[in-house]
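Q: Sequence in, structure out?
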Amino acid sequence: MPKMSDADLRAILEAKIYNSLGFQGGLLSQERRQAERFYKGELFGNEIEGRSQVVSRDVAEAVDSMMPSLMRIFASGDEVVRFNPSRPGAEAIADQATDYVNWIWMQQNEGFRNFHAWFKDALLKKAGIIKIWWDESEDVTRETYQGLTEAELAILAADPGIEIIQDKAYSDPSAAAPSPPAATGAAPAASAAAAPGVGPGAAPPGAPKTERAPAAERQPPAPLLHDVVLRRTTRTGRVRIRPLPPEEFLIDRRAVDLDEVPFLAHRLKRTISELIEAGYPREQLAVLEDDEVADLSLERLERFADEDEMPWRESSALDPSMREVWVTECYIRVDYDGDGVAELRKVTVAGAGAAVILDNDEVDDHPFAALTPIPMPHKFFGMSIADQTIDLQLIKSTLWRGALDSLYLSNAPQMGVVEGQVNLDDLLNRRPGGIVRIKNPSALVPIQTAPLGGDAFTMIEYIDTVREQRTGVTRYNQGLDPDTLNKTATGINTIQNAAQQRLELIARIFAETGVKRAFRRILELVAKHQQQPQIIRLRGAWVAMDPREWTDEMDMTVSVGLGTGNRDQQVAQMTNLLQIDQQIVQMQGGVEGPLVTLQNIYAKLAKLVEAAGLKSVGNFYTDPRTVPPKPPAADPLLQQQQAALETERQRVQQQPQIEAANAQVKAATEIRKAQIAAATQLEIARMRAGLDREAELRRQILAARAPASRAGSAGIYGGEGR
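A: Exactly. Output:
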């Protein structure tokens, strides 16, 4: 078969676009517009002037009551999905893929806002559509810098992604040489300095004259500063996620799901400037014409009708680059290459219908993920919560209006008058204490209105019960009902759990359909397109993510809540399980037994933190998988032997030092002994010398005293003799 021509491809695409669901009205578009009006509480169009026009808000109450629970289930934790390894030994890769994909959704692409818009579209308008794609477009920004030095300007100019479009250079005023201050008597000093050989510092007479350099040569030039305007172009690929308005998504009429759909497209308005930045040729864009009929999208007009009285009127741009044209990004299965097998191709067309083909490439998959709260078998679009409550809102509003009309007539009944006997101006201007002029007392007769019974309020209560049964949103989930004060807590919990089952079913449907496909699409994109590691911050630490080692064939589990019951029940359940784990740990003799492991305990603690309403479990408990393993415990006998060997080795190594130290101590001891002995001998000699001198001195004294003693003795005896 020959290759398909571009004209044939444009004809096929134009037919697919015009015949797709969601294009330019149709029953689906009417139902979504009706859901929008009922959600905003607009009038039904059957109101009667002078009668009650109250509108019940059952659709808004049902949708808005489901949103908090769904957002808590999917957006309250750090881990929306978990990837499981597809082969042994790939646990670390699966954990890294889990952290990175969740970070891309929640941090890099505002995951909370995406979840909110995605889920609300599904609950209100049958289906929520989200688009996930790899974006490598250039991001061009204008930046202004003032007071840059030459070195700083050189650094900016060296960046290949920066184009300097304006540079204003000027001297640095802070670096200019200061002028000498003018002192008192400056004029005479100047005159003296002007005379040769006069004044301080003047050369003495007869000294050789030297030429002085000019002031401009003596002082270095002041450094330059720059005021710069530059254009920065950033070329970085990343995953982008965007919820689509329902009217921008087109799909084949006979589509059942997104896996085998023959045609689907994203149709939106883009400016000529955006298309040129995306790389499309100017000559193709110059011939594009506006599609004025397509501009009147009734769904889009309905979305802005409450804030703009003329939403169809848009200001025409005088700048040709800001002119908007319709661009349709189509994903179609077609045999373009003529091999007899239809392949999936991405074809972007612009203008009315499919006037110009901007690109045509074969692709592996389309970028869309969809979810619906109440799926219908064998068709793409299911039912929304609005579909379940629109008729109830209409019935309840009618009952309210009738009850209020009856109350108004009871307070201000109609009056029967005799023509010509009553002043009608007085009667029409009725007010408390007012006067009505009549000519005959019987000319004014009130028309009795039947009193308002309880049947209307009973019917309204019944309508509320039907709505609770259809949606699963009960008054017990929204607060305490005064009628439940006499009921037991067990009964109320039973009612809440039964009502919550429907909400959990919707959450499970969301998880297994749209959420799973969206996160698997993110994994595929980073595994195929990201060619270098990226550093991200996880649980207080910077981690390098390298998707080149990953595979998109890993199993995936989506977290859809913490089980049945409210948060108090969930906290109690996790606490009881942890107490049981404590007993098991004591029985098995540690946390690595056959029944309970450290990872099992951490999983329960993570669920407990989520049930408590806290954001990140990493701030409270550490994942055991991130902790390095402890070295295995050694044999005690082997440890003793190793200790003995180590002691002997140290002793052998220290033996020379010990012997040298002992020799030094012994030598010092001998020297000390010799010193003590010498000192002792010296002291003994000194003492002996002292004793000898003392004995000699005594002898000399005694010798000196001996003659005197003898002389005295003779004189005494001699005198007595005479």
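DSSP finds 19 helices and 17 strands in the chain.
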